[in-house]
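Progress note, project year one: complex with magnesium ion.
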Amino acid sequence: MIRLKDVTFRYPDGEQDILSHISLKILPGVPVSIMGANGSGKSTLARCLNGLLLPVSGLVEVEGFESRQEADNERIRRLVGMVFQNPDNQIVSTTVEREIAFGMENLSFPYRQMIDTVKDLLTEFNLVEYRSRSPHYLSGGEKQLLALAAVLAMQPLYLILDEPTSLLDPYSRKKILTTIFQNSNGRFKNVTPVLITQYPEETFFTERLIILHHGKIEFNDSPGRVFTNPERLLQIGINVPIEYKLNLGRQVEN
Ligand SMILES: Nc1ncnc2c1ncn2[C@@H]1O[C@H](COP(=O)(O)OP(=O)(O)O)[C@@H](O)[C@H]1O
Ligand SMILES: [Mg+2]
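Model obtained:
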């Protein structure tokens, strides 16, 4: 379980709290999505969840490890994988296949398992033809797929996806999410996704939807129940699926 207890965060040079008194639980096997307007603190929250940022007050615990403890922090980074919004920030290797192997190598996975995993993930994410090329030659969307493959290769328990489909076309978006959430071949069955997204329809892949507004949690419920508040959501800059907007129209008419 990932547990946040009354977490408040502020950047060292900042004048205001970016996250304010956040408490939440993310349970293994219960995928979660997070929405919020630009600047509401989603990426900051993501970095707190995997120990990259430490709260100013409050606690972040993952499987009982506490992110402010140095030895624990290392464990947490391994348990909670993260795909960043901009894939250029995390791709480090000279070829596509080395990029997928890189993290596994650092974690001393057995050689045979590494070779098999790289091969499977290249196929799964349609990257086989680029395997020996530099990641620089990939499109933005392909880089996102590569970053995702490289994180999955390390078999994290939780996988934070920070707007992972923002550079993809609709077909690839759907494919990547289906691959992760419906774990077609069982490869990802032990990974609990945490999806940060600006596309409301994507939240229905998850069981819970957390809405952030100015660094505070405004809703934390099933996506279906959260979207029964279209008026408030639109007011705080969150897009709502069309069928819930239609409900809004009906309410206004009555
Ligand atoms: N490294 C940083 N230093 C100072 N302020 C930052 C930094 N990163 C983000 N912020 C500020 O924190 C707020 C939340 O940013 P962020 O977490 O990236 O929001 P989101 O991902 O929801 O768009 C924004 O006002 C942003 O300007
Ligand atoms: Mg962000």
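The chain has a mean pLDDT of 92.
Strands lie at 2-9, 19-26, 32-36, 57-62, 65-66, 80-83, 158-162, 192-196, 208-213, 216-221.
No further modelling is planned for this target in the current period.
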